[in-house]
Amino acid sequence: MAIIQCPHCEKDIELEAGSSGLFDCPYCEEQFSWGNTPHSSTTRWFDLWLGLLIPSSTIFPGIPMLLFIFEPQGLEGLIYLIVGIISNILTTLILGLIGLRMQRYQLALGALFSPIASALTFYLYAETI
Ligand SMILES: [Zn+2]
């Protein structure tokens, strides 16, 4: 047996030694997690950057790569630009949904703020052409 304190009501709770996961406090009935948390803080930071940077990578280097590979002429270039922006929005949405589904909220948070990063990337890229 291990005795821990409820993070909500601070009463002592007995747990099986070495147990981990989600528990309900018998006193205040609040839920709390104990033991090995599934995601370390490194993973959380990694997820945040992942959610933030992957969508903007569809703009840069995504769009320049598309233009380089297919060498579109005139109006075609605009189409590739739109494709780049659409895949950017899709990547943002997919990452956000994955984050929510897997309860990796930092990933969803990163995706939430990624339009800002994407807009910045797009602005910087547009400056170079
Ligand atoms: Zn409690």
How does the SSE layout of this entry go?
Elements: E1 2-5, E2 12-15, E3 21-24, E4 31-34, H1 41-57, H2 62-70, H3 75-101, H4 105-128
Helix pairs in contact: 1-3, 1-4, 2-3, 3-4
The structure holds zinc ion (ZN).
The small molecules bound here are: zinc ion
- The percent range for helix content is 55-70%
**Cα-to-Cα separation, first versus last residue:** 66 Å
Strand element count: 4
- Radius of gyration computed on alpha carbons: 22 Å
Order of helices and strands: EEEEHHHH
Strand order of the largest sheet: 1-2
Main β-sheet description: 2 strands, antiparallel
Structural class: alpha+beta
Strand content: 5-15%
Number of helices: 4
Tally the structural domains.
2
Whole-number mean pLDDT: 88
Shape: rod-shaped
Spans where pLDDT lies below 50 across 5 or more residues: none
Kindly describe this structure:
The chain has a two-stranded antiparallel sheet. 60% of the residues lie in helices and 12% in strands. The longest helix has 27 residues, at 75-101. It is an alpha+beta fold and 129 residues long. Zinc ion (ZN) is lined by residues 6, 8-9, 11, 25, 27-28, 30.
How would you summarize this macromolecular structure in one to three sentences?
With 129 residues, this protein is an alpha+beta fold. 60% of the residues lie in helices and 12% in strands.
For this entry, give a set of tags.
single chain, two-stranded antiparallel ribbon, 60% helix, rod-shaped, binds zinc ion
